[in-house]
């Protein structure tokens, strides 16, 4: 199999969807989709299509200002389907001091905020890379 793909980014104020600067879980799901796209390009030379999630679980809140690392890997390759595992981890936490809005800290251990299993497909005629 190939190496996992990782993205790391800061959740911005634009990502905050709910009161208290809480980030919508759909934002994390969109990041899983970005990782899936890169995995398919690296594996097949095509973006493919995301068919669906077998499971998705949100484990901890994410806030504007937090840094999130998203990782995914292909765990099964079918004729046209690709099963992938995803995880999202908070690596830097903001909002640690109500009297100082710019305060943040690097977490000693990343905190799992979401995980998922999903399936993508790449039609045979779009599989440009030989394996």
Protein architecture, described:
The model has no long low-confidence stretch (mean pLDDT 94). The strands form 2 sheets. A 5-stranded antiparallel β-sheet has the order 1-5-6-7-4, with helices on one face. The radius of gyration is 16 Å and the shape is elongated. By secondary structure, the chain is α+β, with helices and mostly antiparallel strands. The chain has one helix spanning 25-44, and strands at residues 5-10, 16-18, 22-23, 49-58, 67-77, 81-94, 104-121. Helices cover 15% and strands 49% of the residues.
Labels describing this entry:
1 helix; 131 residues; 49% strand; alpha+beta; 15% helix; elongated; 5-stranded antiparallel beta sheet; two-stranded antiparallel sheet
Structural class, judged by helices and strands? Answer: alpha+beta
Instruction: Give the low-confidence spans.
Output: none
Using DSSP, what is the number of strands?
7
Order of helices and strands: EEEHEEEE
Strand order of the largest sheet: 1-5-6-7-4
Span of the ends, CA to CA: 10 Å
Strand content: over 45%
Shape: elongated
Short description:
By secondary structure, the protein is an alpha+beta fold. Helix content is 15%, strand content 49%.
Topology:
Layout: E1 5-10, E2 16-18, E3 22-23, H1 25-44, E4 49-58, E5 67-77, E6 81-94, E7 104-121
Antiparallel strand pairs: 1-5, 2-3, 4-7, 5-6, 6-7
């Amino acid at each position: 199999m190939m190496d996992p793909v990782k993205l790391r980014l800061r959740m911005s104020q634009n990502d905050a969807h709910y009161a208290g600067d809480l980030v919508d879980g759909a934002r994390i799901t969109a990041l899983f989709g970005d990782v899936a796209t890169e995995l398919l390009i690296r594996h097949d030379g095509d973006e493919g299509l995301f068919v669906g999630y077998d499971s998705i679980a949100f484990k901890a809140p994410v806030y504007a200002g937090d840094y999130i690392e998203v990782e995914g890997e292909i765990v099964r390759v079918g004729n046209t389907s690709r099963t992938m595992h995803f995880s999202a981890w908070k690596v830097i936490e903001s909002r640690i001091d109500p009297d100082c809005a710019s305060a943040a800290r690097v977490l000693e251990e990343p905190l799992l905020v979401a995980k998922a299993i999903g399936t993508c497909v790449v039609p045979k005629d779009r599989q440009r890379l030989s394996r």
